[in-house]
Structure formats: C-alpha cells, structure tokens
Design brief:
Strand order of the largest sheet: 3-2-1-6-5-4
Helix content: 40-55%
Distance between the termini: 68 Å
Order of helices and strands: HEEEHEHEEHHHHH
Largest sheet: 6 strands, antiparallel
Number of helices: 8
Strand content: 5-15%
Structural class: alpha+beta
C-alpha cells in the first residue's frame, strides 16, 4: 500500500486488504463528520447476494450516540470490541437489523490528530465472534494505514503546490518572451523606417565597441530576435551564461532592458 500515491486509490483498496490480510469476513470503511459517521465502502469475503444490504447505507448519516462504541473512539482513539451486539449500545438499524452482526470490532483512522474515519470488521456469516485478538490486529492495521494515509495526503499537497509553481513559472517565462518579442518587433519596425529614410550619421552597431567578442556574438543574436535558449544552443553555452552576457551588455549600454539596448545600438546614441 505504500506504493499507492493517490488517497482515493488508497481508500479503495483498504477494505479488501483488511479482509485478505487480517482474517475477517466483512469490513466497512466509514467517514466521520462531526457527531455522525457515514459508511463509504465495504469488502466481503466471497460473492454473496445477501450483502446487497450495504448499498442502501452508503453515505447515510448515522448519529454518534454518546454510549455507542464508535463515540468512544473519538475521545480515546483506541479500537473497541463489541462481543455481543444484543447487549451493547450499537446503532442497530445498520449493524443488527440490516447487517445481522452478532459481534464486531471497530478502529479509528486518525489524520492530523483527528479521527476521520472508522473501520468496522466482523466474521459474519460465520458463527465465530470477534475477540481481543481481532481487535488488536485491526488496531495494528488502522494505525499503520493512518500513517500511510497522512503521508499520501502530504505528498498530494506537495505535488499540487509543485504543479502550481511550475505553471506560474511557465506563465511568467511565456509572458517575458512575449514582451521581448513585441519589443524586438517594434525595434525592427523602427529600423525599417530608418532604411526608408536613411541617416548617414547613424551606425548599425555604433555602441558595441566596448563589448567583448563573446558579448558581441550574443548581442548580434539578440538583435536578430533570438531567445536566450536559442542563443545558448547556437553558441553552445548554457542559458545561465547567456543571461550573464545579456546583463553585462545592458550595463555597458546603460539600458534598462534588452529592447532598449537594441534600439539604442540601431538608432545611435
């Protein structure tokens, strides 16, 4: 179960795992909501049409009477053994009338110090009654399950946060690329106007004399509209190195951004 990375999938297999590994005939998983519990899913050993009774109880709100074994779990966070349902303050409509359980054990599922669910288990239709050994086995299972569930919830949250951050970064990068491309397009338009009305005193690269050879290579590609990634690929350097060169170029031009540096180089100071 540790390999399951989704809480929904984890809950889906919980009941079956208890039946297969802990020796019970029936297992029911319920959610705890305030002062009530709601049966969510179940697993029964073998195929028996008589277990169709459970479908009518799925997501039904069952009150937590203060005398009921389930109510005691909220405070004690320990499993309970009901050896004889006829003499216990159990909720008889589902446990006795519909489920026909004579004896059962119930254990809490704990998440972040709160009881968030119950696991009921018994041996029906066998005549065997639940005992202390069944109680301890179910407790060991639910205790381990609670830790796995809490870990899975945390991993889901971390993955969601990671995806949100990734989306923000991608969105920001795309926005920056759009802004750069639009600025470069404006510069090219201005350059086109200059070619239609040339000014002899202006030099295409009038302020590039202070650039190093590598910075000049980077700058020529910047003027051509290449992105940092494209520049890195063409010059066989890392994007980090490209960003460093761009920073130096802007400082030497006294420009606030790459579009301004390109404009000044094309139009002259």
């Amino acid at each position: 179960m540790r390999s399951i990375r989704d809480t929904t999938a984890l809950l889906d297999v919980a009941c079956e795992e208890v039946v297969l590994r802990c020796g019970f005939q029936r297992v029911v998983l319920s959610r705890v909501e305030g002062r009530s519990w709601r049966p969510s899913m179940a697993h029964f050993a073998g195929e028996r049409q008589s277990e169709s009774w459970f479908v009518d109880w799925i997501n039904q709100s069952i009150p937590l009477d203060s005398r009921a074994p389930e109510a005691q779990l909220l405070a004690k966070r320990r499993p309970s053994l009901v050896y004889d349902t006829s003499n216990a303050a159990v909720y008889k409509p589902i446990i006795v009338d519909a489920g026909r359980s004579r004896s059962y054990v119930v254990a809490p599922i704990v998440h972040a110090d709160d009881v968030v669910g119950f696991v009921h288990a018994d041996h029906h239709p066998l005549t065997r009654r639940a005992d202390e050994g069944d109680r301890d086995v179910l407790w060991a299972f639910t205790d381990g399950f609670s830790h796995i569930y809490e870990r899975t919830v945390l991993l889901e949250r971390l993955r969601d946060q990671r995806d949100q951050v990734r989306d923000l970064v991608v969105s920001a990068v795309n926005r920056m690329d759009d802004l750069c491309e639009s600025d470069i397009a404006m510069v090219r338009a201005a350059d086109s106007d200059d070619h239609e009305n040339p000014t002899p005193s202006k030099s295409v690269y009038g302020t590039t004399g202070s650039l190093t050879e590598r910075e000049a290579d980077v700058f020529r590609l910047m003027v051509a509209g290449a992105t940092n990634r494209a520049i890195a690929e063409q010059l066989v350097i890392t994007e980090g190195t490209v960003k460093s060169h761009v920073k130096h170029i802007l400082r030497k031009f006294g420009a606030a951004n790459r579009a301004q540096a390109i404009a000044w180089s094309l139009l002259g100071e």
